[in-house]
Amino acid sequence: MIVTVTYNPAVDQTIQFDEQMAPDRVMRADEAQFDAGGKGINAAQLLTAMDRPCVATGLLGGFTGSFIRETLQGDGVETAFVDVDGTTRLNTTAIAAAEEYKLNQAGPTVGESVVDSLLERVRAQSPDRVLVGGSLPPGLSPDAIDRIATGGDWETIVDTGGGVLRELDAQYGLCKPNRDELGDATGADVSTVEGCADAAEKFRERGFDRVLASLGADGAVLVGDAGNLYAEALDIDVVDTVGAGDALLSGVLSAWEAGADDETALRTGVAVSSQVVQQAGTAVPDLGDIDSLRDGVTVRRL
Questions:
Q1: Catalytically active residues, by annotation
Q2: Residue 91: which domain range?
Q3: Is Transmembrane helix a UniProt keyword of this protein (predicted)?
């Protein structure tokens, strides 16, 4: 069973415009979409949709926090959040003339005592794997992630920014940077797929058993004891890239939970991510066609 920890969740607002955005003018959208967001939350929704036992934990506050809790419960996701003072952040993605503009809030300031409360929630679930995803709110340092990793007998997966990844000291089963985060964390040249794989292999030495790197239109690499695997991206019409990396990771974890090997897991991750990016927002798409999509993913060893 997997527990996801989202220290800094958000309500994701997605608005679309037919024309290019410009300063000093009022832009009006006919519709706005609101989704429960944050890396761990997105993963919990996808894992639940794929019938993998999962509990979502993290920090919630204010009316936006209530929205996230109610949304997850409505989607059938089991929750065990810690309530905090302040208001959970609102992140906005504006899509205009095929361009994306992202405006993210920092989140409410919290004290280190929330880590103790979160560890209590995690331990109560007796998970096999714990996924810590997303940014840290003001008031917490990377030690808050290390404390989760060393707080129990579970494998910990981490999906956060490259700067934070560099500061982690515990041992992790997997980290999932994107291309920019991988370059930031290692200082390596990640302009090519081979360069990304080499950087991921080097990064394993910092305490990560496996490294899963999302490379956007170039696909993804998974580096571990089973070798360096590269999966090409599927040829699809991309609408919105928000949540693409979360979907990749969720697909990989779902396959591992079913006993799959790394190659099958990587194929599954790319298939799930391909479904997510074909729609606006971070809501869970129809995943009924994942098996056929997975069969179309090309994987090779580097």
A1: 246
A2: 2-20+30-301
A3: no
